[in-house]
Amino acid sequence: MALINFYGRECPHCERMESVIVKLEKDTGVVVERKETWHDDANLAELNTCDKDGACGGVPFFFNTETGKSICGEATIGELKEWAGV
Questions:
Q1: What is the spatial distance between Cα 55 and Cα 5, in angstroms, rounded to a whole number?
Q2: Residues 56, 48 contacting (CB under 8 angstroms)
Q3: What pLDDT score does 59 carry?
Q4: Which fold would CATH assign to domain 3-84?
Q5: Which of 29, 20, 38, 39 is nearest to 1 (CA)?
Q6: CA 66 to chain centre
Q7: 3 state SS of 11
Q8: Helix (H, G, I), strand (E, B) or coil at 81
Q9: pLDDT at position 1
């Protein structure tokens, strides 16, 4: 299973989510892979594949490869735990 956070380096929403992601990792032991999309075309292409039909259309975007569940935008620690399945 891979938990992926697609983000933009200068995105203020993404910056705010970093501390929530760190808390998720610390509290649960899960690892969230971070992929910057604003300056990396390969990561952007992967984001577009995971964001089926462009439903989110931006970052932050969280994708769980095992369940196919995603979160678009900022989320609470509870929402991230549910998304991660922990």
A1: 16
A2: no
A3: 97
A4: Glutaredoxin (3.40.30)
A5: 29
A6: 14
A7: coil
A8: helix
A9: 62
Neighbours of 59 (CB within 10 A): 24
Reduced to 3 states (helix: H, G, I; strand: E, B; else coil), residue 22 is helix
Along the 86 residues of the chain, how does pLDDT read in single tens digits? 699 999 999 999 999 999 999 999 999 999 999 999 999 999 999 999 999 888 898 999 999 999 999 999 999 999 999 999 99
The partner residues of 62 in beta bridges, in order of sequence, read: 5, 71
Helix (H, G, I), strand (E, B) or coil at 47: helix
- In sign, the C-alpha dihedral spanning 22, 78, 85, 54 is negative
DSSP classification of residue 75: -
Structure-block tokens of residue 4: 């992926």
What is the residue type of 1? M
| Count of other CB atoms within 10 angstroms of residue 73 | 13
The owner of tokens 């380096």 is 9
